[in-house]
Specification:
The complex is a heterodimer of chains A (299) and B (241). Chain A has 299 residues and is α+β, with helices and mostly antiparallel strands. Chain A contains 8 helices and 4 strands, in the order H-E-H-E-H-E-H-E-H-H-H-H. Classes of the chains: A alpha+beta (299), B alpha/beta (241).
Chain lengths: 299, 241
Amino acid sequence: MALNTYADVPLNADPSGRFVPWIVALMVYLATISLMVAFSVNSIIHRWDAGFSACLTVEIPSINPSDVSEDVDNGQIRGRIIQTLLKTPGIGSVRTLSREEILKTLEPWLGEGNDLSQLPLPTLLEVEISQRDHLNGDFLKKALKTILPTIIVEDHLGWQRSILDLAYSAQVIGLLIVCMIMLAAIGTIAFTSQTSLIIHRNIIEILYLVGATDAYIARQFQNHALRVGIKGGFVGFLLSAMTFLALQFFASHLDTTIFRDGGSSMTLWAIALIVPFFITIFMMLAARFAVRLALKYVI
Amino acid sequence: MLQKKKTEDVISFDNVSLSFGPDNKIFSNLDIIIPKGSFHFLTGPSGAGKSTFLKMVYLSQHQTAGSVFLFARNTLHINHSEIPYIRRKIGVVFQDFRLIPTLNILDNVALPLRVRGVETRKARSQAAELLDWVGLEDAMQRSPLTLSGGQQQRVAIARAVIGRPEILLADEPTGNVDDEIALKLLHLFEELHKVGTTVIVATHNRSLPHTFHHPEIFLNQGTGILIPPSSVPVFRNREGK
């Protein structure tokens, strides 16, 4: 589509549109930063999700005969617990920790070199979770408590899920903000175009009288929106690029990989370039659509 | 109706009435046929409906009753999307010129070609030739606001004819210019008429039809009378008034 070398409708001189490039620049900046944050949160979520321990610990205290109704020993109880665990959906494997391994975990509290042979220790089971989504932690705890009421299950699932939910919410809010900014940009240009159409009604009438089509008149506004989009988009890009570089600088001092690792850094630069492009395209389409609608029903 | 509608008639008013409210009748049962390639003067006192007649021809005003045929098409059956393409066959010189003040006169004249998709440079080149033809070759880059009424009139004429229209409508083209310029402008219209353009010139000056030996459509009190050059009226409205 050719950009007119001059405009028949003097939209550049409109007082109503004087600040639109700056508003667009601000919107591009906010949308870019919001999208960058949403993307960064997304990569953090994936990193956390993979990094969160994919296991839970089951502690079987030494059995007090009053705790169980049947006449059973430690070995039988442990066997039933392991069987229940292995039948539970989402659990991959169960391993019983050796006495040496348990003692090693206690070293920070009990110190090294002590004779702990007489110390009564619980049985610890390390349970590997194969499919986190399939595992119902509460249901598992209830099932194990029916076998041994004093059993302790450390599943970490609750707080991990809360953190992930929080992160996902932040990501969704970020994307919603981007959508709202896009809508605001589209609305701004649509209303500005319709206002300009009314301001320049006389010129529009002349254009009609010399044989201009609705499409020709709409193209005048569309090309103006393109120019405004390019101006605002460029300033918005510069602002977001400077912000991104500053964030990268601070991130390097905070010893975090956010904004800095190669893959996500490339994606964030791509976001900084793509957002102004898309906002400009949407603005052009919005101007064209708004003007054609107004020409049909208003003029 | 004394004349029969023929396919070569470019404009035909068939029993046309127009009113803006019950007390404001502009036309009543008007029958007028304008053949292709003719030259007519549209005369009448102020408020007789000369400008409104032209508006109906360039599709800015619809009648309240009857039919207007333009290029053998009923104007009421022309779609909104077709109007620009029909207007491109009609050049109009408006009484108030209707020039775009933010464009220089070269671009004002080039406008009808640009809206048709002609490349800007080519449109400007043709506009320059026409401005030369109307004697404004030295004012091409000037704003219309800096021109006199007569000069603006000539710009408006150049803009009206640049698209080689089949019909040229001029609303009081001599109203803002002195006699010498007026004569010059009318000779320009004569030149266009000679190459086959249908010309209608609305004017309050009833001596022009006699000077140029062209028929006159005299509008008065809602009726139209066709007066052949240097003759007596032969055309009346339906009531025979």
